Amino acid sequence: MMQHRALLHTICYRSGAPFQTNAVLPEITVDIRPAAALPYFTITQTDGKTALRYELARHDRVYGLGEQLGGLNKRGKMYRTYNTDISPHQPHIETLYGSHPFLFITGERGFGFFLDYPSEMMFDISHTHKDILEITIPSQDFDLYLFDVSEPKQIVREYLTLTGSPYIPPKWAFGYQQCRYSYPDAETVQAIATKFRELDIPCDAIGMDIDYMVNYKVFTLDDDKFPKFAEFVAQMKTNGFRLVPILDAGVKVEPGYAIYDEGKANDYFCKDEQGEDFVAAVWPGLCHFPDFLREEVRAWWGKQYRFFTDQGIEGFWNDMNEPAIFYVPEKMKQAREKIYAILSKDDIGRELTEVGDTMELFNRREYFKAFSQRADDGRVVNHDAVHNLYAFDMTRGTAEQLKLAMPGTRYFLLSRGSYAGLHRFSGIWTGDNSSWWEHLEVNIHMLISLNFAGFFYTGADTGGFGAEVSPELMIRWMQLGMFSPLFRNHTWYGSRQQEPWSFDPETTAILRDVLRLRYAMIPYAYSEYMRAVRELRPFIAPLFFEFSGERSQQVEDQFLYGESLMIAPVYTPNARGRFVHLPESRWLRWNASRCEDRAMTVMQPDDYYVSADIHEVPMFLRENRLCVLAEPMSHVHEQPIRKLTVLGFVTNAAEFVYYEDDGASYGYRDGQCAELTIRARKTAAGIEVSCEKCEHGYALQISELACEFYDEHGKQFRSSVTL
Amino acid sequence: MMQHRALLHTICYRSGAPFQTNAVLPEITVDIRPAAALPYFTITQTDGKTALRYELARHDRVYGLGEQLGGLNKRGKMYRTYNTDISPHQPHIETLYGSHPFLFITGERGFGFFLDYPSEMMFDISHTHKDILEITIPSQDFDLYLFDVSEPKQIVREYLTLTGSPYIPPKWAFGYQQCRYSYPDAETVQAIATKFRELDIPCDAIGMDIDYMVNYKVFTLDDDKFPKFAEFVAQMKTNGFRLVPILDAGVKVEPGYAIYDEGKANDYFCKDEQGEDFVAAVWPGLCHFPDFLREEVRAWWGKQYRFFTDQGIEGFWNDMNEPAIFYVPEKMKQAREKIYAILSKDDIGRELTEVGDTMELFNRREYFKAFSQRADDGRVVNHDAVHNLYAFDMTRGTAEQLKLAMPGTRYFLLSRGSYAGLHRFSGIWTGDNSSWWEHLEVNIHMLISLNFAGFFYTGADTGGFGAEVSPELMIRWMQLGMFSPLFRNHTWYGSRQQEPWSFDPETTAILRDVLRLRYAMIPYAYSEYMRAVRELRPFIAPLFFEFSGERSQQVEDQFLYGESLMIAPVYTPNARGRFVHLPESRWLRWNASRCEDRAMTVMQPDDYYVSADIHEVPMFLRENRLCVLAEPMSHVHEQPIRKLTVLGFVTNAAEFVYYEDDGASYGYRDGQCAELTIRARKTAAGIEVSCEKCEHGYALQISELACEFYDEHGKQFRSSVTL
After folding, report:
1. pLDDT for B25-51, tens place per residue?
2. Four-residue CA torsion sign, B598, B602, B603, B609
3. Which of the following is catalytic: B85, B158, B322, B675?
4. Interface test with chain A among B350, B556, B576, by most A beta carbons within 10 Å
5. Pick the catalytic residue: B158, B319, B623, B661?
6. Which domains does chain B have, with CATH numbers?
7. Cα B214 from Cα B285, distance rounded (Å)
8. Is the dihedral of CA A370, A374, A380, A383 positive or negative?
9. Domain Glycosyl hydrolase family 31 C-terminal: where (chains A, B) (predicted)?
10. Which ipTM value was assigned to this complex?
11. Is B322 a catalytic site residue?
């Protein structure tokens, strides 16, 4: 069997006849061995189930699982992989919208593994037993890919070689997005857009949540709310705003409604136990669910997006695709009867808790066992057995067809549900969090964990979806959102307005500065993002990916943002500073507040309490690294970037590769891009800078560099370069 | 008008004709001025409502509100005072079981105030507006006591002078208590007790949750589950265990049930709008609610505890006394009809959320407006207007009668609901938290905040009530519980066992060490507790009560435990250490793990990352302070303490007053106690120790001191003293 070159350490341990998920790239071939040969784990298979047990050393750390709550080190909690629409995200919740069963262990022995199995698995990571990792799979059919190397960076690289290179969105998607459930009509959207420009607050996109539809029917648009939509879209775009509509997976049962009629006529829907189209309720009421497991259904579905792309839309968010199910009629009937029986008594005490339990109708496991799908090979499979693929296949279908619908233009796509490998097609957002400080902290952990799993383009609802944000939490969350590739402010209809001007004037001013700094950093972020994709290493990485010291292994609340910067977000209320760990090298502290002002301080490796007043973000430039800043713009493509400021902490020699492409097409795949290698070297005379341009079918737009370097004494050296 | 001597800075600003809550001691008289004369605040009164607005300086800090979620500094959140049975304690929750409207501000201007108003008030503390504190009172009848001094310690002293000296429980209540909802019968309780003794794990009490009753009827005991109860209680006590039954506020409507019949016959229950006994459901089903506002009802209720005290019981926990209400029949009928109407449709989409909302029947505000109480002066008041007094008066009645039922023996009493001033009669526990790391952190803040409000005897359900604890969370929480005067492990019937031996053997061993150290520290804790009560200053205090440095003002996750020790609990998963701030003086670091071993290190004031492996608790002994340790015992009164180890960090001179009384009676009030003043002084020759005994009608039981002192170089000096 052919061995893929980059996968020298990956072996697939196969048990039974696993369902082929497509998480792994079809062109990849790896050695396949029987699961019984799996090293490290004790494997027990009885009653059609599998238990994998691994004894952890006292200080081993376990990472991975992508979109999950809890710490970055996953020890101490019970996790599940079963895509679920659930909110609020209380700390004990075991599974969210996506399943990413890729983990790695570091410590006494290091290795990683990807459990390619598309349904529920339990990961008891030191929850029941302090030093035991126990994985339970309700099946004996699965693939376990073992990455038998100890270096986390290399483990991630092998995983991404196996599952594919991360999604690259259009460059405007590195801008800021404003959203709310829902801006009710075009007039409101227009007013929001106008306000951004009036207040000189950068923004590139506005989200359209479910209320734009007619009765929540997917691929419809309410003309009363959004008249002359194509014109409106064009006009918004002229002003630098993309509109991003939401799409739901369920199709309302309603003869005469085109999507329903087509799906019905072509037999595209999932089947219930009687072989009828499966019925369950979501927002529009009773729905059918497209069987995305089939190629023809994916293609049909994906083609529907032309309804929007034909009107100028370039971006979408696929929602409710775990899938979310409110209830199925039969269960509702049972619940109704049980509730009637209890409630018709006149004296109910403790039994009342039963009513509550009975009414917990959302997303019951039994619904997912009550319908089937058909694989492309014709096999009929129970949905439950492939549950975690539903969003994967919906979004795969969307992506494939968007590529065709938008030739030469990168599509923007988010999915709420996901499975390992979806990172090739789309970004994800992390669902319905709450305006809790705790969720700001979780956001940090998730960003890092999702980067491990290849979801470089991701972000949380900045400011929080549920509950009520305070001005200070909004500021601190925007200061983190600033470093999320997906930077979207979104909230629930029941909560206060969260647009940057919805608080007091000082908060507006601080948020404007945050957003201006975000935009100023896009050239750095985009360069580093593209490099991370090329090199298959996390764009946002924990300290232990770069530093080997014992203390660096423990830090969960700081991260590397690209290779030059380390960020220490503030995630507690009323803070005027925070503790940071500065590992191994020296660091140039940069308490960023405005892109125009910088007070830089050289710091030695150690633990510190650093100040961080409400307008300040503790950022640190690594020794002998550079980063670049542009002038902020109102939106990403407002005008070409001609001039960059190069910031550097140069005690010896540093290099940065600035990357540029058109930000819109797939030209970069054919090498239509340009690189500018900027080199700085400390000499007796000062800090010398040299540049090397490399253009391939794309002309670099930068013509000027303003260099601002600091040496180990904090001495500043300024120079400029004309290219 | 007479001015109480200790209250030179307290003035009562009165608006209208406030309901007299009894939060303030009846013997206290203070200057009363019209609310219009209130300084600092802008007061607006319209439509029968009052708004108090205070402009905060950017870095002002706001403390207080007792039992509330959020940070120690309350800025950034919306709070309410309306006693509510609510769980889980999600971060945005605005009110819990107790209302303690005592706050203070420090920063540019410092002062404190107690808003004596027994119903809902809103405290918008920098939530809506970053720099505004806005209090909304739905009334114009209230007393605002202004403590016009800037020193927090003095503000707390004035508040406690006004509202009374904190509750002193029997000394056994400083031991450990094991609880679970529920240990089903005597046999199980016996087995738990036996296990503690077998494993040599100290314990003094076992809680009895609601299932011991007959059909949840208050003041009943199921003889099948607990046969020969008096004998059982006696036998348990012989072995060093107190049993602590729970009592609920609602009285089941059931003719023939003595409590119901008596209450009915004497017209003791709250009245609905038709003048009938108010009916609402709780655990037993439909209930009446004693009108605790009336002296005769309180006395009647309090006398019922004799059912238990006659059988040897010495301690109780009053539950469901906010009061909690599951539903009222009329509302249930309406809800039932609405639900029937929605659920009888066959196609429900978004409407389903209405069903959920309709079924949120628990503790609706309208219930509390639907019944009335009668004040002692005969006035009929709507319950809602005095809602926050219900638990206060129930527990007042309990306390008053327990004093009579247990002459010469201190009663043990906890209440879930509370109002300002209840701290005179009883301790409180902080209700139904969850096994979340977040709630371990909240526990730290609440301990400190409740100490401000005089609730020195308090603690959380250690290990967490809801959700599932992990072994590591159990260990870390027990390491905090160790410093809670009320140290009780309690959990819900749906969660795993939480007794110290319910995990792995290493966890059992660590928890045994934690409990042994707790018991070893009781002589120190009891001495400091009694002194804190005497001096009216928090037993558990934040750093800024003792240290004036800028950094000390910000620390919310460390506390002073008595005057000699500072504790820095670990409250994050997988930690091998934590950051600490060591203020102003030098500190002797003592990573406590077992009471037998100590490795002491001298540390200079600064910020540090200190190690704290899973079995270690970062503790710090303050410069020129002493503390005492005894040999651990299996329960508090196992044997008299004859010997103490004196630990000291002595760079100049230090003094500690060890306090002793019988731990059981009220003799201490008449001075039947003994003090041993231990003095250490550094001289050229070493560290000299001297003692001074002071006995009043009580003979000190200590006869020997083993001194272990350290100087600023970490040099150890050992000596012993025979008394």
Report:
1. 999 989 999 999 999 999 999 999 999
2. negative
3. B322
4. B350
5. B319
6. 5-163 (2.60.40.1760), 171-249+260-268+286-329+387-512 (3.20.20.80), 524-621 (2.60.40.4040), 627-722 (2.60.40.1180)
7. 13
8. negative
9. 538-624
10. 0.96
11. yes
